[in-house]
Every structure is written in C-alpha cells, then in structure tokens.
Amino acid sequence: MAVNLLLAFSIYIRYDLYLEWYRSRHMLTEVDTLYTSGWWQSMVFEQIICLIAPYPFTYNYIYTEVNSNYNVTIHYKINQILMCFSFLRVYILFRYGLFKSSFMTPRASRMCNMVGCQADHMFAIKALMKQMPYSLLMVILILTIFLFGYQLKVFDGPLSDASQQNFNLLSNACWNVIITLTTTGYGELYPKSQLGRLVGLIVCFWGTFMVSFFVVSVNNMLNMKPSEEKSFNIILRLHFKEELKDHASLVLGSAFNMKRYEKRQPYSENLYQIAVKRMKNSIQAFKRAMSKVRRYMDEESQMDMFTNQVDNVQDEVKILKKDSKIIQGGLNQVISMLQTLNDRLEQQKEIKSNKLTEDDGGRMLASQNSFVTESMVSYNPRRQMTLMRQETKH
C-alpha cells in the first residue's frame, strides 16, 4: 500500500516538475497551476490507475457470481480482480519507451516548435509507426495476448470443470485471445463468466484497431517508390509492345490466309468465312493491345513531359545564374574602371590646384617687390626735410 501511495505522489511530483519546466520556457505564466492548466484531470486519472492494486485490507473480500448456464457459483477474491485490472500500469512501460525514442527529446521538441507542432506522445507514436511499424505492432500484440490471456485464465478458470473448456491452461486462454483479436471466433473456446466476457469485449474492440494497423502497415509496405513505379511502367510498356508485335504478326498471317483462301481453286466459302472471322478477331486483339500501349505511352509521355519541363526550368535557372555572375563581373569591372578614372581626376585636380597656388604666390611676390622698388625710388630725403620744416613754421 505504501508503494502505491508513493507511486501516486511521484506522479504529482512529475506533473509539478512539468509545470515548472513549461514556466521556464514561457509556455505557461507564473500564475498558472495544475488546475488552471487543465493537467489535474490527467494527473488524477493516472493516480487512480496506479492505485488499482491488491491491498492487505481487501484480502478477505470475495465477489460471488452465479452462472445460470452451468448452475455454478463462482467465488473471486477481490485481490484477484484488482490484480487483473492493475495490468493497466503497463502504460508506464509504453510511455517510457516513447520517452527513450528520438522523437520526444529536447531537440525533437525544439524542431517541432519551429514548424508549429508538439513533440507529445501521439507524435511519437505516429513517428514510430512510420519508422518501425512491424516491431511496434509485434510488441503490442505479444503484450495483448499474454495480459488478456492471463485475465481470461483467472476469470474463466473456475468454470473449466463445468464447461469442459480448460481455461486453467494459459495456452488455451491465449489462443482464445488470438482468435478474438483476429475476429475469427472458431467457437471451441469462448468466455462464459461475466468478467471473462468483459475481457473478451475489450479484446474484440482492441482487435479491430490491431487489424487496421496491420492493414495500413502492409499497404505502406506494398506501395511502390517513385523509382520502382517508373521501372514498373517501363517494363509493362515493353511487355505490351511485345504483345503488340505478336498481334500484328497474327493480323498479317490471318490476312494472308484470307487472300489465299479467296484465290484458292476450288473456292471454299466456309474456309474463306473462317479466315475472315479470324482476321477480324486478330484486328480486334491488335486494337486492344494498341490501346494498352498508347495508354502507357501517354502516361509515360506526360511524365516525361513534366520531367523535361522541370529539367528545362532547372537549366534555365542555371543559365540565369551564369548570366547573372557574368553581368556581376562586368559591373564590378565597370565600377573599378570608374573608380580608377575618379582617382585620376582627383589627382589631376590636385596637381592643377597646386600649380595655381604656386602661380598666385609668384605673382604676389613680384607685386610686393615692385611696390618696394617703387617706394624706394620715389623716396627723396631732401624733399622730406623741406616739407617737415615748412610744417614746423606754420
């Protein structure tokens, strides 16, 4: 009992850790709880499943069933019934296998979020059905046969002496599960107790899913790949061409026989009509063979046309890429040439500006020299002294 309570508490811890993880990834807000997120329902459901188990305080409790068909009273211990239903815990192993796969890893979750889906249990199941369908179905089938077979052994075993169907043997119970899964039902073994019939009903519904899984897997296995389908069409077309040649030879032979019987002496109307009928039949067979060849030729020609169009588009894209590279190279050359010309023009402008600066400096120096010369020439000391004396007298 303590183990079951510890298991239920560990389920709560797991959901609480999930909640913290989703909060850290900002997929839930800080105020979200197990109740507001809606996870409490699945958590309580898992806890109820894990709490279904035999307990010490239910050891003395007995469930009684009266079978009126055989006038037998069956006594089941409650712990036996709880033990049979405790096999629901097998989902833990199944979920562990899903978590160990490469479709529920953090990397898978990140990739799924990038494309807008979730890496949950259903995604992992679909991915495993695509990757390894036969292994997964075989594991599920073996678990189904042995688990439900054991339950039938427990529920219908006490009726073995009265019904003369020995369900105390596990092999007989498993055989009954197999024929129920496949919806065969030979009738030599079938459950008689109410609980056994409940198990048989569950197996019957589960068998429809298993059979559908097998059908889908086989269908996917038989589907041809594009290369295989193309090879098949080519081989079939060549086969029909050979048949067309044979029918053409039959038409020519029947036409030759008809002409031969027409010109034969003595003339026989019956032989001629037989030859005409054979020729008509040969022509009809030739037309049918021609239609088959034409149909496959049309399908192949349409596919070839589509393939050629795709190839042409790819070639045009390649040509455009090459032309764009050539144009880009030419543009780069033109840009480099323009840059070179611009640099040369800048250099010429600098040279001209330097020359102009030197010329202006020379002119200014010459004008200054001439001004100094003129000043020196025009300067007369005697005249200056005379002028100063006159100003002093006044």
Automatic annotation (TrEMBL):
Positions of transmembrane segments = 78-98, 132-152, 198-222
Q: Which residues form the Potassium channel domain?
A: 140-222
| A UniProt-annotated Pfam family | Ion_trans_2
A cellular-component GO term for this protein: membrane
Listed A to Z, the keywords are:
Coiled coil, Membrane, Transmembrane, Transmembrane helix
Listed InterPro entries: K_chnl_Ca-activ_SK, K_chnl_dom
**What Gene3D superfamilies does this protein map onto?**
1.10.287.70
The chain's coiled-coil residues are 296-358
Query: GO MF annotations for this entry?
Result: small conductance calcium-activated potassium channel activity
Q: SUPFAM superfamilies from the xrefs?
A: Voltage-gated potassium channels
Protein known as: Potassium channel domain-containing protein
Q: Which organism is it from?
A: Halteria grandinella
